[in-house]
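Human: My hope is that you can spare some time for a protein that puzzles me. I am handing you a single protein, as its sequence and its fold in C-alpha coordinate form. Could you go through the record with me and say what the backbone is doing? Take your time, and here it is.
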Amino acid sequence: MPHRFTTLRLRTELDLVRALETCTAVTDEGGLRLRQDYVQDAVAERLQPRRHLLPGLVLRDLVRLCVKLPDGLAALAVAVDFVGDETTARAVRLCVAELDALAALEGELSAADWLMLRDCLWERVLPDAARVAYEITADRLSRPPAGHETLWHLFVHLAPCNAAPEVDPPWLVFLRFAAARLDPPARAHVERLVQTTADRWDLPEPPAHLDPIPPADRPAGEEPTAHLMIQIEPAAARPDQLLVSSWRQWDLGPWRPVRGEEHTVAATELQATVEQLIVDMEAEWGAGGTRDDAGRARTLAVEF
Protein backbone atom coordinates (compact mmCIF):
# COMPACT_ATOMS: atom_id res chain seq x y z
CA MET A 1 0.00 0.00 0.00
CA PRO A 2 1.48 3.39 -0.97
CA HIS A 3 2.66 5.63 1.82
CA ARG A 4 0.34 8.56 2.49
CA PHE A 5 1.32 11.92 3.90
CA THR A 6 -0.77 11.17 6.99
CA THR A 7 1.37 8.11 7.62
CA LEU A 8 4.52 10.17 7.10
CA ARG A 9 3.33 12.75 9.62
CA LEU A 10 2.52 10.08 12.19
CA ARG A 11 5.94 8.49 11.71
CA THR A 12 7.65 11.84 12.10
CA GLU A 13 5.64 12.58 15.24
CA LEU A 14 6.80 9.22 16.59
CA ASP A 15 10.40 10.13 15.71
CA LEU A 16 9.87 13.33 17.68
CA VAL A 17 8.65 11.41 20.72
CA ARG A 18 11.60 9.03 20.48
CA ALA A 19 14.01 11.95 20.28
CA LEU A 20 12.47 13.43 23.42
CA GLU A 21 12.65 10.09 25.22
CA THR A 22 16.45 9.97 24.87
CA CYS A 23 16.93 12.80 27.37
CA THR A 24 16.25 12.15 31.06
CA ALA A 25 15.92 15.87 31.79
CA VAL A 26 13.05 15.96 29.30
CA THR A 27 11.22 12.81 30.37
CA ASP A 28 11.22 13.06 34.16
CA GLU A 29 8.24 14.64 35.89
CA GLY A 30 9.96 17.95 36.58
CA GLY A 31 11.29 18.32 33.06
CA LEU A 32 7.93 17.42 31.55
CA ARG A 33 6.15 20.01 33.68
CA LEU A 34 8.74 22.70 32.96
CA ARG A 35 8.57 22.05 29.23
CA GLN A 36 4.78 22.18 29.36
CA ASP A 37 5.00 25.57 31.08
CA TYR A 38 7.34 26.92 28.39
CA VAL A 39 4.98 25.77 25.64
CA GLN A 40 1.95 27.25 27.39
CA ASP A 41 3.69 30.60 27.76
CA ALA A 42 4.65 30.63 24.08
CA VAL A 43 1.25 29.70 22.62
CA ALA A 44 -0.85 31.45 25.29
CA GLU A 45 -3.04 28.40 25.69
CA ARG A 46 -3.53 25.98 28.53
CA LEU A 47 -2.24 22.46 27.89
CA GLN A 48 -3.86 19.60 29.70
CA PRO A 49 -1.99 16.34 29.08
CA ARG A 50 -3.76 13.35 30.56
CA ARG A 51 -1.77 12.64 33.73
CA HIS A 52 -3.32 9.23 34.32
CA LEU A 53 -1.35 7.83 31.38
CA LEU A 54 1.91 5.96 31.79
CA PRO A 55 4.98 8.29 31.73
CA GLY A 56 5.89 7.49 28.13
CA LEU A 57 2.33 8.06 26.97
CA VAL A 58 2.15 11.42 28.76
CA LEU A 59 5.04 12.57 26.58
CA ARG A 60 3.29 11.35 23.44
CA ASP A 61 0.12 13.09 24.52
CA LEU A 62 2.01 16.37 24.94
CA VAL A 63 3.42 16.03 21.41
CA ARG A 64 -0.09 15.36 20.12
CA LEU A 65 -1.34 18.56 21.74
CA CYS A 66 1.57 20.60 20.35
CA VAL A 67 0.88 19.31 16.84
CA LYS A 68 -2.68 20.65 17.05
CA LEU A 69 -1.73 24.13 18.26
CA PRO A 70 -0.50 26.91 15.95
CA ASP A 71 3.21 27.32 16.72
CA GLY A 72 2.94 24.52 19.26
CA LEU A 73 5.77 22.49 17.74
CA ALA A 74 8.06 25.51 17.47
CA ALA A 75 7.36 26.27 21.13
CA LEU A 76 8.15 22.67 22.03
CA ALA A 77 11.50 22.88 20.24
CA VAL A 78 12.38 26.07 22.12
CA ALA A 79 11.35 24.46 25.41
CA VAL A 80 13.66 21.51 24.75
CA ASP A 81 16.48 23.98 24.13
CA PHE A 82 15.96 25.16 27.71
CA VAL A 83 15.64 21.84 29.52
CA GLY A 84 17.34 19.29 27.26
CA ASP A 85 20.82 18.58 25.94
CA GLU A 86 22.07 19.78 22.55
CA THR A 87 21.84 16.35 20.90
CA THR A 88 18.19 16.01 21.86
CA ALA A 89 17.44 19.61 20.90
CA ARG A 90 19.00 19.11 17.47
CA ALA A 91 16.98 15.95 16.80
CA VAL A 92 13.79 17.68 17.96
CA ARG A 93 14.42 20.69 15.70
CA LEU A 94 14.82 18.39 12.70
CA CYS A 95 11.57 16.54 13.46
CA VAL A 96 9.73 19.85 13.83
CA ALA A 97 11.20 21.09 10.54
CA GLU A 98 10.10 17.87 8.82
CA LEU A 99 6.56 18.23 10.17
CA ASP A 100 6.42 21.84 8.94
CA ALA A 101 7.72 20.73 5.54
CA LEU A 102 5.16 17.93 5.31
CA ALA A 103 2.39 20.41 6.04
CA ALA A 104 3.70 22.78 3.36
CA LEU A 105 4.25 20.18 0.64
CA GLU A 106 1.18 18.00 1.00
CA GLY A 107 -0.55 18.15 -2.37
CA GLU A 108 2.65 19.29 -4.09
CA LEU A 109 4.68 16.10 -3.63
CA SER A 110 3.60 12.52 -3.27
CA ALA A 111 4.66 10.47 -0.28
CA ALA A 112 6.89 8.48 -2.63
CA ASP A 113 8.56 11.73 -3.75
CA TRP A 114 9.17 12.67 -0.11
CA LEU A 115 10.76 9.31 0.70
CA MET A 116 12.90 9.45 -2.44
CA LEU A 117 14.19 12.92 -1.57
CA ARG A 118 14.92 11.90 2.00
CA ASP A 119 16.91 8.93 0.78
CA CYS A 120 18.87 11.00 -1.77
CA LEU A 121 19.58 14.04 0.40
CA TRP A 122 19.86 12.64 3.92
CA GLU A 123 23.60 12.02 4.21
CA ARG A 124 24.92 14.65 1.78
CA VAL A 125 26.61 17.34 3.85
CA LEU A 126 26.45 20.98 2.77
CA PRO A 127 28.90 22.86 5.04
CA ASP A 128 27.62 26.29 4.02
CA ALA A 129 23.90 25.60 4.38
CA ALA A 130 23.18 28.95 6.04
CA ARG A 131 24.60 30.93 3.16
CA VAL A 132 22.75 28.90 0.53
CA ALA A 133 19.44 29.45 2.34
CA TYR A 134 20.25 33.15 2.62
CA GLU A 135 20.81 33.53 -1.10
CA ILE A 136 17.92 31.37 -2.30
CA THR A 137 15.31 33.05 -0.10
CA ALA A 138 16.72 36.62 -0.01
CA ASP A 139 16.52 36.30 3.78
CA ARG A 140 12.79 35.57 3.90
CA LEU A 141 13.51 32.69 6.27
CA SER A 142 15.71 32.61 9.33
CA ARG A 143 18.99 30.78 8.96
CA PRO A 144 18.93 26.99 9.39
CA PRO A 145 19.39 25.83 12.98
CA ALA A 146 22.92 25.05 14.09
CA GLY A 147 24.01 21.57 13.12
CA HIS A 148 21.57 21.27 10.23
CA GLU A 149 24.12 20.90 7.46
CA THR A 150 22.87 18.20 5.10
CA LEU A 151 20.98 18.70 1.87
CA TRP A 152 17.94 17.16 3.56
CA HIS A 153 18.12 19.61 6.46
CA LEU A 154 18.14 22.54 4.09
CA PHE A 155 15.36 21.14 1.92
CA VAL A 156 12.94 20.82 4.85
CA HIS A 157 14.02 24.25 6.10
CA LEU A 158 13.12 25.85 2.75
CA ALA A 159 9.90 23.90 2.13
CA PRO A 160 7.52 26.30 3.95
CA CYS A 161 8.84 29.36 2.07
CA ASN A 162 6.48 30.24 -0.79
CA ALA A 163 7.07 32.28 -3.95
CA ALA A 164 5.29 34.65 -6.31
CA PRO A 165 3.22 33.22 -9.20
CA GLU A 166 5.30 31.78 -12.04
CA VAL A 167 8.42 31.79 -9.86
CA ASP A 168 10.13 28.65 -8.62
CA PRO A 169 9.55 28.20 -4.88
CA PRO A 170 12.80 28.19 -2.90
CA TRP A 171 12.65 24.45 -2.24
CA LEU A 172 12.48 23.77 -5.99
CA VAL A 173 15.36 26.17 -6.65
CA PHE A 174 17.30 24.32 -4.01
CA LEU A 175 16.56 20.91 -5.53
CA ARG A 176 18.03 22.12 -8.82
CA PHE A 177 21.10 23.23 -6.88
CA ALA A 178 21.27 19.99 -4.88
CA ALA A 179 20.87 17.65 -7.85
CA ALA A 180 24.20 18.78 -9.28
CA ARG A 181 25.89 17.60 -6.08
CA LEU A 182 24.47 14.07 -6.05
CA ASP A 183 25.67 10.80 -7.48
CA PRO A 184 24.27 10.05 -10.97
CA PRO A 185 21.38 7.75 -9.91
CA ALA A 186 20.18 10.12 -7.18
CA ARG A 187 20.71 13.10 -9.44
CA ALA A 188 18.50 11.56 -12.12
CA HIS A 189 15.68 10.95 -9.61
CA VAL A 190 15.79 14.51 -8.26
CA GLU A 191 16.07 16.14 -11.69
CA ARG A 192 13.08 14.11 -12.90
CA LEU A 193 11.01 15.30 -9.95
CA VAL A 194 12.08 18.91 -10.48
CA GLN A 195 11.20 18.80 -14.17
CA THR A 196 7.86 17.12 -13.55
CA THR A 197 6.96 19.72 -10.94
CA ALA A 198 8.04 22.62 -13.14
CA ASP A 199 6.01 21.26 -16.07
CA ARG A 200 2.94 20.79 -13.89
CA TRP A 201 3.16 24.39 -12.68
CA ASP A 202 4.12 25.71 -16.14
CA LEU A 203 7.21 27.40 -14.73
CA PRO A 204 9.71 29.10 -17.07
CA GLU A 205 13.04 27.50 -17.81
CA PRO A 206 15.60 28.23 -15.07
CA PRO A 207 18.77 30.23 -15.79
CA ALA A 208 21.78 28.32 -17.01
CA HIS A 209 23.63 28.46 -13.67
CA LEU A 210 22.50 26.32 -10.77
CA ASP A 211 24.36 28.03 -7.98
CA PRO A 212 22.90 30.93 -6.02
CA ILE A 213 23.21 34.32 -7.69
CA PRO A 214 26.65 35.98 -7.42
CA PRO A 215 26.98 39.24 -5.52
CA ALA A 216 26.34 42.58 -7.13
CA ASP A 217 29.36 44.58 -8.21
CA ARG A 218 30.67 46.94 -5.55
CA PRO A 219 32.17 50.37 -6.13
CA ALA A 220 35.86 50.34 -6.93
CA GLY A 221 38.00 50.63 -3.85
CA GLU A 222 35.26 49.67 -1.39
CA GLU A 223 36.61 47.43 1.34
CA PRO A 224 34.56 44.20 1.53
CA THR A 225 33.40 43.84 5.13
CA ALA A 226 31.34 41.24 6.95
CA HIS A 227 29.05 42.58 9.66
CA LEU A 228 27.81 41.28 12.99
CA MET A 229 25.23 43.52 14.66
CA ILE A 230 24.32 42.81 18.29
CA GLN A 231 21.39 44.36 20.13
CA ILE A 232 21.07 44.13 23.92
CA GLU A 233 17.88 45.15 25.72
CA PRO A 234 15.92 44.21 28.84
CA ALA A 235 13.81 41.08 28.38
CA ALA A 236 10.18 42.22 28.44
CA ALA A 237 8.82 39.21 30.28
CA ARG A 238 11.82 38.83 32.60
CA PRO A 239 13.11 42.23 33.76
CA ASP A 240 16.01 40.66 35.63
CA GLN A 241 17.44 39.31 32.37
CA LEU A 242 18.67 40.66 29.03
CA LEU A 243 17.56 39.83 25.51
CA VAL A 244 20.48 39.50 23.08
CA SER A 245 19.59 39.65 19.37
CA SER A 246 21.97 39.54 16.43
CA TRP A 247 22.07 40.01 12.67
CA ARG A 248 24.83 38.86 10.32
CA GLN A 249 25.91 39.59 6.79
CA TRP A 250 28.79 37.57 5.38
CA ASP A 251 28.93 38.69 1.79
CA LEU A 252 28.94 41.71 -0.43
CA GLY A 253 26.00 42.71 -2.55
CA PRO A 254 22.52 43.74 -1.36
CA TRP A 255 22.18 44.60 2.32
CA ARG A 256 20.26 41.58 3.63
CA PRO A 257 21.46 40.79 7.15
CA VAL A 258 20.36 37.41 8.48
CA ARG A 259 18.72 37.40 11.89
CA GLY A 260 20.24 34.98 14.36
CA GLU A 261 18.70 33.22 17.33
CA GLU A 262 17.72 35.33 20.34
CA HIS A 263 19.24 34.63 23.75
CA THR A 264 17.76 35.55 27.12
CA VAL A 265 20.58 35.72 29.65
CA ALA A 266 21.46 37.06 33.06
CA ALA A 267 23.75 40.08 33.24
CA THR A 268 26.57 37.86 34.47
CA GLU A 269 26.29 35.77 31.29
CA LEU A 270 26.21 38.71 28.87
CA GLN A 271 29.93 38.89 28.12
CA ALA A 272 30.20 35.16 27.44
CA THR A 273 27.12 35.28 25.18
CA VAL A 274 28.51 38.16 23.11
CA GLU A 275 31.89 36.47 22.83
CA GLN A 276 30.23 33.27 21.63
CA LEU A 277 28.29 35.19 18.96
CA ILE A 278 31.57 36.63 17.68
CA VAL A 279 33.29 33.23 17.73
CA ASP A 280 30.39 31.64 15.83
CA MET A 281 30.40 34.45 13.28
CA GLU A 282 34.13 34.14 12.72
CA ALA A 283 33.84 30.37 12.28
CA GLU A 284 31.06 30.62 9.68
CA TRP A 285 32.58 33.61 7.92
CA GLY A 286 35.90 31.83 7.59
CA ALA A 287 34.42 28.55 6.39
CA GLY A 288 34.01 29.60 2.77
CA GLY A 289 30.89 28.82 0.81
CA THR A 290 28.94 29.26 -2.36
CA ARG A 291 30.54 32.48 -3.54
CA ASP A 292 34.04 32.80 -4.91
CA ASP A 293 36.81 34.62 -3.09
CA ALA A 294 36.18 37.83 -5.02
CA GLY A 295 32.77 38.08 -3.39
CA ARG A 296 33.86 37.37 0.17
CA ALA A 297 34.47 39.97 2.81
CA ARG A 298 38.04 40.47 4.01
CA THR A 299 37.32 42.05 7.38
CA LEU A 300 34.72 41.62 10.12
CA ALA A 301 32.97 44.55 11.81
CA VAL A 302 31.07 44.08 15.08
CA GLU A 303 28.46 46.73 15.90
CA PHE A 304 26.27 47.25 18.96
